[in-house]
């Protein structure tokens, strides 16, 4: 559904939360040290930390730094066995050497180069090699099977021994309206869903067609994110969740496949937007041959806590992912270190500064957990593992505030959250923002599916009220137009690229205000015994209500 206007959203939430509930305690608002935040970002995003890749020597350096800062702040260790760390077992997979990849298109053989026309991920099925020859390709539209919407893109097709070709995003993306809520991406639009559905359909592999607008990022991001080390949670049957080959292809290659089959690419996309779409066999086959090294490793979440003074068994969580892409393919300047300054050294720095504020200030009534999670860039794996193996019970976790790039490029007059969820935490955030002279604006790009791309999502789908903060882009100097231009430039030139580096010339005018807002909304929940919830029509409400008996 489209984003709700502010007045309607507040009216919907009013039935859940009275204006007097969760009243702000008289705790003084701390002063946040912008220079200290900048130093944490500069340190974590330096070349010495080698892009903070999980299961590398940089992980040890990174998590030790975070734990040391938590200890210096005065937090108590909240990890496993009384430590600062929670062990997170993961399957780590790498392609060994350059994969041999080719297609035969309309009878003509064409070699494919990894990272150029195609970006193939290391198999996450546990197998040691991927070898197949001349497997047929089948276009399956958006690759959606949604019985509740009366939608099935797989009508009558048997994908066993075949490679499925699929579009990214939802069927509604192009037209802006339809059975999938218009521009707001559903989980059906995420590439993770398409990989999962390919495995359920028994396909031999899946090719996602890349286009920058529906994907919400360019080919450089796809290449850099998919051609390095892959991680997954440890599964009893990994082949139930993954096919042997998962990959993206450039639009130009896809258009060539369609043309050789006598099908216009744009016409096929238009057909895929309709319920009556039927799979289209393509006059093309694919072959592949490459070795895969797969092993089970242990990465780590980092956890520190301030114990509550009145309700110590109840929890508020601040979270941020510490990892980035590590060392990868060189960019045009030869740089191989993906520093991840904004994504997400900045969120980790915000987490540490909030930890200092809570530890040194008056004790919150509820316990506050500061959680730095691993492997977000590999599919929210650290937060997914935490949600399945919580250090603090989910039923008595009052809320989660996640931070992924939490600082504005400059000072903003607004703020937002990832996605368009309706929940009491958003009401509280809106009220606290208003006290600071800032207003809530719905996600500027709901079609990007950002709700499913941040570490609050694994908690949300298990019912815990959770948001991922966005600092907004309505700049005090230049307004929304300039803010969009700066965001677009970052996405194009720096996101998931070595150029995402710390810059001493950054404008930090938004940072103290962003930190204050993050602190105030968390403190408001922490100094209360009320329980925020989702709106009555939220898909996450039932899961939360099912655990109500555990909250008193």
Describe the structure.
Helix 2 (34-44) packs across helix 9 (341-360), helix 3 packs parallel to helix 9 (341-360) and helix 11 (424-435) crosses helix 14 (511-526). The chain is an alpha/beta fold and 552 residues long. The longest helix has 20 residues, at 341-360. It starts with 5 loop residues before the first helix and ends in a 6-residue tail after the last helix. The protein has a 16-stranded mixed β-sheet that branches. It folds into two domains: 6-83 and 307-550, Aminopeptidase; 92-294, Glucose Oxidase, domain 1 (3-Layer(bba) Sandwich). Residues 1-25 have low confidence and may be disordered. The protein has helices at residues 6-14, 34-44, 57-73, 191-200, 212-215, 219-226, 251-260, 265-272, 341-360, 381-388, 424-435, 457-460, 479-493, 511-526, 541-546; strands spanning 76-77, 85-105, 108-112, 118-120, 129-139, 145-146, 151-152, 163-167, 205-210, 230-233, 245-250, 280-306, 311-321, 326-327, 337-338, 366-373, 397-403, 414-417, 439-440, 466-470. 29% of the residues lie in helices and 24% in strands. The chain has 15 helices and 20 strands. The chain is globular. The relative contact order is 0.17.
Brief rundown of the structure:
By secondary structure, the chain is of the alpha/beta class. It contains 15 helices and 20 strands. The longest helix has 20 residues.
Give me some keywords for this one.
single chain; 552 residues; alpha/beta; Aminopeptidase; Glucose Oxidase, domain 1; 2 domains; 16-stranded mixed sheet; two-stranded antiparallel sheet; 15 helices; globular; disordered N terminus
